[in-house]
Amino acid sequence: MLDKKFFKIICFIALLLTSVISLSSCANNNQLLLLNWGEYINEDLVREFEEEYNCSVSISVAESNELFYSKIKSGTTAYDLVIPSDYMVEKMINEFNSKPEDIICCICPSIRKCHFEVQEDVKNKFYNAFNYMKNIDKIIEFNKNTNSYFIDTVEINKELLKEEGILEENIVDSGICTYCNSNIIHSYRKEGKQAGRNTALICLK
User: Cβ(55)–Cβ(4) under 8 Å?
Assistant: First the structure.
């Protein structure tokens, strides 16, 4: 059975529509300690979460990946959730000796193949980088009606995760396209400069 603290962490992740780094379980089950980028949290949602689960969310801010790393490395605060960018996550995994087979990766709401449509120049960059993948013909498909290409970046990421030793059954895909659901999730491709920010996390346990 999940303890109350871990359950609240899972609920907060669901609130953010993200996937995660959960670093610790501190003694205070009524407080979640979050290290995040300054613009990434909707304060109204945080207040609603606190009221719903009778807890407090304490948010610390870092302005760069290096500051994320130094805050975690110092051990001064036992953060429950940490939200760095992808290249720093890899460094943290190596630093904390996490085993790939123990990692659960969640693919959050993102633009999907149905709306990631590009021209020849962009297609060529993807093809040159990932043509070794056995399913490349499904990852990149030509649209003869518009003379353009649809690219499945989700499938690319699944393959990259498996290359790193992540078990296929531990890759959880939300299946949500941000463009198709721009009424509830930000989509830069649809909203342009009016779009907000979505958050992506990785789980360390």
Answer: no
Segment 44-100, tens digit of pLDDT: 777 877 887 787 888 777 777 777 777 777 777 777 776 655 555 566 667 767 677
Distance CA 101, CA 57 (A): 30
Question: Rounded to the nearest 5 degrees, what angle is found at the Cα of 197, between the Cα atoms of 196 and 200?
Answer: 160
Locus of tokens 């290359």: 163
Give the Å distances, CA to CA, from 189 to 124, 138, 201. 20, 22, 21
pLDDT digits (tens, 9 = 90+) for 96-115: 676 777 777 778 788 899 99
Report which of 171, 41, 60 is spatially closest to residue 106, judged by C-alpha positions: 171
C-alpha–C-alpha distance, residues 123 and 26, integer Å: 46
CB 197 within 8 Å of CB 133: no
CA 141, CA 160: separation in Å to the nearest integer? 19
Q: Is the dihedral of CA 53, 80, 205, 41 positive or negative?
A: positive
